[in-house]
């Protein structure tokens, strides 16, 4: 399987961006390849297309499955495992958001909650405790907000996102009207 120069450039760039988003470069490339490829691909095809070893492909596929970003697709009469992206780009984005929340935000909220529950009578720590409470409250709010986003249909989510700049303009006008600027 050979990629055109444009598609190869996309896959390479996606791998570089993936490393900035918290996934390994090769894993990002495998995901990009599966997203843009119409047919399911097996490990050999992925390795050939990306010029990476079978072992790297195998580890990358396991990582993507643990993130719930790909799923196996069986082809009748073929014993090899084939893989496809686990949904459209909106579904994948929401899945990444949910997985990052589980892996990064939830443990932090738990730690902050535990710290806040510990009774300290020290006035020296009050400023720090308030900052910890502020961080906790912000993360809780973000978690609630992301939960709302997770429950939305992609079409509704698109409409909401398109409102973003319009909402800020409306709030700016309101603030000017009320003399808050």
- The share of residues in helices is over 70%
Q: Give the class from helix and strand content and strand pairing.
A: mainly alpha
SSE order in H/E notation?
HHEHHEEHHH
What integer value in Å does the Rg equal? 22 Å
How many domains, in number, for the residues? 2
Spatial order of the strands forming the largest sheet: 1-3-2
Counting DSSP E segments of at least 2 residues, the number of strands comes to 3
The major sheet is characterized as: 3 strands, antiparallel
Describe the structure.
It contains seven helices and three strands. The model has no long low-confidence stretch (mean pLDDT 89). The chain has helices at 5-20, 25-36, 43-50, 54-66, 89-117, 126-150, 154-177, and strands at residues 41-42, 70-73, 82-85. The chain folds into two domains: 5-85, Arc Repressor Mutant, subunit A, CATH 1.10.10.10; 89-157. The N and C termini lie far apart (59 Å). A three-stranded antiparallel β-sheet has the order 1-3-2. Helix 2 crosses helix 4. 15% of the residues are buried. The protein has 181 residues and is mainly alpha-helical. Helices cover 70% and strands 6% of the residues.
